[in-house]
Design brief:
Radius of gyration: 19 Å
Oligomer: single chain
Strand content: 5-15%
Number of helices: 9
Distance between the termini: 35 Å
Shape: globular
Low-confidence stretches: none
Length: 202
């Protein structure tokens, strides 16, 4: 499994726009699973899961991890082909999926006690700022280059992209990058339902 895979294919964008397929990817990033195991966890039939698996395997979003013989049958275990899928910006087909990912991330803030209003319009504004930041830091081209590296795990990949981005910026670029960070923080804070406070573990 690669740490990062850059997605440019319109077919892959379309596949990941489906909620069930995103849930399957989420499961397979965490642990290798069979079709039956995925079906049980998602409350769907194995036939329905296999239909999704076949399409995602053809699009190189998932891969066969291993096969085991159980009695007279071969059990196939699948895994995601990367820990993180990086959407290549500028592709029209990625817009809907990209917005949904941002909306999901904003909504998931509630799981740590931060309530924020999120909708597609809010997501579009966040994405616009993030794209400008990525362009300044060269993160898109860096992600392409880093995605092909062997022996670098997910956390190492993220650090590599971040450090290289800082070093490739001019002083003027860095000032603009900081200004965009401030804009993003201001936008997020404007949508807070109540003052942010991390939920403490019981």
């Amino acid at each position: 499994m690669k740490a990062v895979k850059v997605i440019k294919s319109p077919e892959a964008f379309q596949l990941l726009a489906d909620d069930t397929r995103r849930r399957i990817i989420h499961l397979l990033r965490a642990k290798e699973r069979t079709v039956s195991q995925i079906a049980e966890e998602l409350g769907l039939t194995p036939q329905a899961i296999y239909h999704h698996i076949r399409k995602m395997k053809d699009a190189d979003l998932i891969e066969i991890a291993r096969e085991e013989r159980v009695d007279h049958f071969i059990e196939t275990y699948y895994r995601a082909s990367a820990e993180v899928f990086h959407l290549s910006h500028g592709e029209g087909q990625s817009k809907k999926l990209e917005e949904q990912q941002v909306v999901d991330a904003l909504q998931n803030l509630s799981k740590i006690g931060i309530e924020i209003q999120s909708d597609p319009e809010m997501a579009s504004r966040v994405i616009a700022i993030q794209r400008k930041m990525a362009k300044i830091g060269g993160k898109e081209s860096l992600a392409d280059r880093v995605a092909g590296l062997d022996g670098v795990d997910f956390f190492g990949t993220q650090a590599l992209i971040e450090y290289a981005g800082y070093l490739l910026m001019s002083d003027e670029d860095f000032e603009e990058y900081l200004d965009l960070q401030k804009q993003l923080r201001k936008l997020l804070k404007s949508k807070l339902v109540r003052p942010a406070q991390l939920r403490k573990k019981a």
